[in-house]
Design brief:
Layout lengths: L9 H24 L8 E2 L2 E5 H20 L17 H24 L16 H25 L6 H6 L3 H5 L2
């Protein structure tokens, strides 16, 4: 990465943290607004998967990355959740903990000149911009999956909820 592109202070990285927080709050908004009856429903064609499992995967994936990148650098690793038992409210609390882990990884990267430490396996470049884009894209993919599955299962979300996922100005203030 070119020196001019590197971020080496917390001031430089605050916009990245703000962008992550907005994406995180968008995920929380969706989880909180999923109809409770949908939570345990199975994914058509994949009887081992449920809405709950896909939603919980977001937290557990964050935990895995926090562990593989940050554990040896004293970043606190949140505990994964039980994919088959976690409640919506329990997942919201867990997602808040794993979001802190992602923020701590961004801060770690900032302290290292804009580069996060490489994990033992990783499929994205180590600069903070790619790091953030990767995690935002992952969450957006699964949010879209959850919305589509809700529709397929006969629980289309109200228009104001779906539109709320795109209200990033509002989500950024939460």
């Amino acid at each position: 990465m070119k020196d001019a592109q590197k971020s080496n202070s917390l001031g430089d990285v605050c916009p990245l943290i703000a962008a992550w927080n907005t994406s995180h709050h968008t995920t929380i908004y969706l989880i909180e607004n999923l109809p409770p009856e949908l939570w345990s429903m199975k994914v058509p064609g994949y009887p081992q998967k449920s809405i709950r499992r896909i939603a919980a995967h977001l937290h557990n994936a964050r935990c895995g990355w926090v562990k593989s990148i940050g554990e040896k650098h004293a970043v606190k690793v949140p505990k994964p959740v039980d994919l088959n038992r976690i409640s919506q409210s329990g997942l919201v609390k867990a997602l808040d903990r794993s979001s802190k882990g992602i923020v701590d990884l961004i801060k770690l990267g900032a302290s290292r000149g804009g580069e996060i430490p490489a994990a033992f396996w990783q499929n994205f470049p180590t600069d903070l911009t790619h790091f953030l884009c990767y995690f935002v894209a992952h969450e957006a993919h699964h949010r879209g999956q959850l919305i589509m599955l809700a529709r397929q299962l006969g629980h289309r979300l109200p228009r104001d909820i779906e539109d709320g996922l795109w209200q990033w100005k509002k989500r950024s203030k939460e």
